[in-house]
Write a structure and sequence with these properties.
Length: about 300
């Protein structure tokens, strides 16, 4: 009976990731993590050429109880029970009850995350742990071994890499859109979309022309990101010519303009659409008076009545 109890405990630990597995010394010294509690930003530094250099940044949610100071990673949990009957994914402990982990879930199920809590990322919102998106929590879980230094501080400056944009979700309960490891996640099949881009024929010298007019974009989670649209333009005068890169569409320069709209959303997913805008040739001005014809005899210098 005793061995059955031990076996059961070990099985549960392995299932939930509660067993502590130390990483090698080299992995532990590769990275250093700094948490700016005031700006809710995590900056990861990588050890290169004898010094730690800024490597990547995460938006996070710290808490009022998050301790300041220097600590080290010493425990990991694939899933971990948190406070008030909640659970977190990819938990990495750095001091006492304080961990890096995903936004919490109602159950041990990645489909039970409250979207309202996810939308708090980037603000002070936790009980003291460091909340992250799943992809960021997993990155620390996978790459930062035992002994990795963790420094918690306060500053108005978010860090050398700045503060990344946070991802927003519509109201409800569901998945973290960065959790591509959960097969049931509907966001795994989604990406940004660019709308309103179409082939057009433009009048010569059209002052109202705007290459961005009517073009809009939505991110993976369905929110407008029009300002993220990047535009590149190529031009050719004649059909047989090769397109050449230009800075803008010149409506006084007839020909074909190949317009490419691209967008990268907060998750890093991309969309691209290309269309053609044709600028018409300059129209003939029919309002100008026609020249008065000159009679041939006057033009030749002869008289109408003939020679004397």
């Amino acid at each position: 009976m005793r061995w059955k109890l031990v076996f059961s405990i070990v099985t549960i630990c392995l299932t939930l990731g509660l067993c502590v597995v130390p990483a090698d010394a080299e992995a532990a010294s590769t990275y250093q993590i700094k948490i700016n509690k005031q700006k809710n930003t995590v900056t990861v530094y990588r050890y290169e050429d004898g010094a730690y250099e800024p490597y990547k940044a995460f938006v996070c949610s710290a808490g009022k109880a998050t301790p300041l100071g220097r600590f080290r990673i010493y425990q990991k949990h694939r899933w971990r029970a948190l406070v008030e009957n909640t659970y977190g994914q990819y938990c990495t402990r750095f001091k006492g009850p304080f961990l890096f982990h995903s936004v919490w879930y109602h159950k041990l199920n990645p489909a039970t995350m409250p979207n309202g809590e996810y939308n708090k990322l980037g603000t002070t919102a936790s009980h003291g742990c460091i909340r992250l998106s799943v992809q960021d929590a997993k990155w620390i879980y996978d790459h930062c071994g035992w002994g990795t230094p963790v420094i918690v501080y306060r500053s108005k400056n978010p860090g050398p890499l700045g503060k990344p944009e946070r991802i927003r979700l519509p109201k409800g309960v569901g998945y973290d859109p960065t959790d591509r490891w959960s097969r049931g996640n509907p966001y795994n099949k989604r990406k940004p979309v660019i709308l309103g881009a179409k082939n057009q024929t433009i009048d010569y010298d059209d002052h109202a022309y705007d290459v961005r007019k009517g073009v809009r974009a939505k991110n993976t989670t369905g929110f407008r990101i029009d300002k993220k649209i990047c535009v590149s333009i190529r031009f050719r005068k004649n059909r047989g010519d090769l397109y050449q890169k230009v800075k803008k569409v010149d409506t006084k320069k007839p020909g074909w303009y190949r317009i490419t709209y691209q967008v990268v959303d907060e998750i890093g997913r991309k969309a691209k659409v290309s269309v053609t805008h044709y600028i018409k040739e300059k129209p003939v001005d029919t309002d100008q008076p026609l020249p008065i014809p000159v009679p041939p005899d006057i033009e030749s210098g002869t008289s109408v009545q003939g020679a004397p």
